[in-house]
Amino acid sequence: MSNYKIAVLPGDGIGPDVVKEAVQLLEEIGNQYNHQFEFVYGKIGGVAVDEAGTPLPEKTVEICKESDAVLLGAVGGPKWDNESPELKPETGLLGIRKALQLYANLRPVTLFSSLIHSSPLKREVVLDTDILIVRELTGGIYFGSPRERRVGEKGVEVIDTLFYTEAEMERIIRKGFELAQTRKRKLTSVDKANVLESSRLWREVANRVSCDYPDVALTHMLVDNAAMQLIRNPRQFDVIVTENMFGDILSDEASMLTGSLGMLPSASLGVEGPGLYEPIHGSAPDIAGKDVANPLATILSAALLLRHSLGLSEEAYAVEKAVEQALEQGFRTHDIGGEWERVLSTTQMGEVVRGNL
Ligand code: ATP
Ligand code: MG
């Protein structure tokens, strides 16, 4: 029997609704595969502002650092829209990412064939799409300094700086290669090397690192072309690795290929220490507490947690299969259901997936 400690941060809005189902699913995995999961709850986001006067209490950071992995719901909502920047729920999320030094953001984009009608793309284009986007999370233009706004001779002038070290590039590119080795062994490195100095270094580093992974086929692609190819022929991609801003944009674009926000999980990994797992959707305050939210993105995030932080790939696969099966059986929540007759509540969907394990 192995023991694992998991920090659970439900957060705001539908966060608690969907996290509850993922936790129960992990408990069921524990029963079936003989693992002991200890869940330790922490506050983050708006609930933490209300109860502790800060979106990221020190206690929460402690809980996370002492755990093998962190499962997070969502943060934010209209109630806290007018808070000052340091009291914004989202500040809590940025804070925990920073505290855990999470540098690699993984976003799998998998089209479940029974949901193919929700994709905006034609069936023959999008069928079997299964992409993993690996985005650098700690560097690039979002964090560069100097940043400046001043008034010059011709009016306002602004500066943002794109800064990366070679070491930051190397660790994320290596992560891309390692992940490609566990999949179809195809890595697309996305940059803008025809224009940017940072991208030229990125390409050099990718070529150098590729010597250590001779079993992975590396392709370079310019970001504008990549944006186009994701729509033209998404199936050509296996793993995509790219810097922070390109990854931000491409992963949102790619997420829409599957047509369903409520289905997509994410993982953020650090050098060592716990990874953080969360659905890509937000707190959806309009449907919070109504037992209608789709829990599958969070359940699939729990699968990523099993795979990437606990090394339990068989268990992760079992969860993904149980989700796929629920969809094949015709079960839907309202967001993916449309006019469907078998629309389930959050709780019911969680039960169905557990039953399929
Ligand atoms: P954020 O700024 O936190 O990303 P947002 O307002 O951009 O939040 P979401 O909170 O992700 O976006 O939700 C947008 C809409 O999508 C919601 O109002 C909700 O109707 C729907 N939605 C999001 N997640 C789910 C889910 N898990 N199940 C069902 N519907 C969802
Ligand atoms: Mg949003």
UniProtKB/TrEMBL annotation:
<feature type="site" description="Important for catalysis">
    <location>
        <position position="192"/>
    </location>
</feature>
<comment type="similarity">
    <text>Belongs to the isocitrate and isopropylmalate dehydrogenases family. LeuB type 1 subfamily.</text>
</comment>
<dbReference type="GO" id="GO:0003862">
    <property type="term" value="F:3-isopropylmalate dehydrogenase activity"/>
</dbReference>
<dbReference type="InterPro" id="IPR019818">
    <property type="entry name" value="IsoCit/isopropylmalate_DH_CS"/>
</dbReference>
<feature type="domain" description="Isopropylmalate dehydrogenase-like">
    <location>
        <begin position="5"/>
        <end position="353"/>
    </location>
</feature>
<feature type="binding site">
    <location>
        <position position="107"/>
    </location>
    <ligand>
        <name>substrate</name>
    </ligand>
</feature>
<feature type="binding site">
    <location>
        <begin position="282"/>
        <end position="294"/>
    </location>
    <ligand>
        <name>NAD(+)</name>
    </ligand>
</feature>
<comment type="pathway">
    <text>Amino-acid biosynthesis; L-leucine biosynthesis; L-leucine from 3-methyl-2-oxobutanoate: step 3/4.</text>
</comment>
<keyword id="KW-0520">NAD</keyword>
<protein>
    <recommendedName>
        <fullName>3-isopropylmalate dehydrogenase</fullName>
        <ecNumber>1.1.1.85</ecNumber>
    </recommendedName>
</protein>
<feature type="binding site">
    <location>
        <position position="224"/>
    </location>
    <ligand>
        <name>Mg(2+)</name>
    </ligand>
</feature>
<feature type="binding site">
    <location>
        <position position="97"/>
    </location>
    <ligand>
        <name>substrate</name>
    </ligand>
</feature>
<keyword id="KW-0479">Metal-binding</keyword>
<comment type="function">
    <text>Catalyzes the oxidation of 3-carboxy-2-hydroxy-4-methylpentanoate (3-isopropylmalate) to 3-carboxy-4-methyl-2-oxopentanoate. The product decarboxylates to 4-methyl-2 oxopentanoate.</text>
</comment>
<keyword id="KW-0432">Leucine biosynthesis</keyword>
<feature type="binding site">
    <location>
        <position position="135"/>
    </location>
    <ligand>
        <name>substrate</name>
    </ligand>
</feature>
<keyword id="KW-0464">Manganese</keyword>
<keyword id="KW-0963">Cytoplasm</keyword>
<feature type="site" description="Important for catalysis">
    <location>
        <position position="142"/>
    </location>
</feature>
<feature type="binding site">
    <location>
        <begin position="77"/>
        <end position="90"/>
    </location>
    <ligand>
        <name>NAD(+)</name>
    </ligand>
</feature>
<dbReference type="InterPro" id="IPR024084">
    <property type="entry name" value="IsoPropMal-DH-like_dom"/>
</dbReference>
<feature type="binding site">
    <location>
        <position position="248"/>
    </location>
    <ligand>
        <name>Mg(2+)</name>
    </ligand>
</feature>
<dbReference type="InterPro" id="IPR004429">
    <property type="entry name" value="Isopropylmalate_DH"/>
</dbReference>
<feature type="binding site">
    <location>
        <position position="224"/>
    </location>
    <ligand>
        <name>substrate</name>
    </ligand>
</feature>
<dbReference type="Pfam" id="PF00180">
    <property type="entry name" value="Iso_dh"/>
</dbReference>
<feature type="binding site">
    <location>
        <position position="252"/>
    </location>
    <ligand>
        <name>Mg(2+)</name>
    </ligand>
</feature>
<comment type="subunit">
    <text>Homodimer.</text>
</comment>
<keyword id="KW-0460">Magnesium</keyword>
<keyword id="KW-0560">Oxidoreductase</keyword>
<keyword id="KW-0100">Branched-chain amino acid biosynthesis</keyword>
<keyword id="KW-0028">Amino-acid biosynthesis</keyword>
